[in-house]
Amino acid sequence: MKLYLMGALMGALLFAVPAQAETVLPADTTVTVAPVADITSKKMKEGDEASFQVVNDVVEKGVVVIPRGAAVKGKITWRTGKGIGGKSAKFEVAFQTVTVGGRTYALKGKHRQEGKGNTVAALLGSMLISGHSAVMLQGQAVPALTAEPITVQ
Q: Three-class SS string for 119-132?
């Protein structure tokens, strides 16, 4: 019986899969993101969602924790329209989540985009001249932060 138990134990040790080390990306790690399509103040309102993607692999201790191209969701939290007197439109987008390996993790941080003002033309011309819409171009890289640790095997 002892010999049988000893053989079973040896077999278990031979076929045991070594535990894989976990890599933890800490909260407050910078993640560079970019919109997947132009975001313009002409076609949005507060509360609208905006789609982004991760620009570069986010690596911790030689392990890719967040791969380039991972989906990121943001939300428009503030918006103004362009106005008379050359006032440009503005908006803010708050980063909410990143999806990695089918799991969603929280992000934080905001980006404010402003249109170009037209105050010189307004001063020289008329108060009827307005500023420009705010546009965040596809591929425009901006920083976001992880709001929680992300663990991968």
A: HHHHHHCCCCCECC
Query: Is residue 89 assigned to a domain?
Result: yes
CA proximity to 75, closest of 111, 103, 102, 104: 111
More confident residue, 84 or 34: 34
Within a domain: 140: yes
CATH of residue 58: 2.40.128
What are the pLDDT digits (tens) for 51-66?
A: 999 999 999 999 999 9
- Please state the domain count of the chain: 1
Q: Which residue has the tokens 């803010």?
A: 92
Cβ partners under 8 Å of residue 26, min gap 6: 60, 146, 149
Which tokens hold the place of 120?
A: 């010189």
Q: Helix, strand, or coil here: 91?
A: strand
Indicate whether 55 belongs to any domain: yes
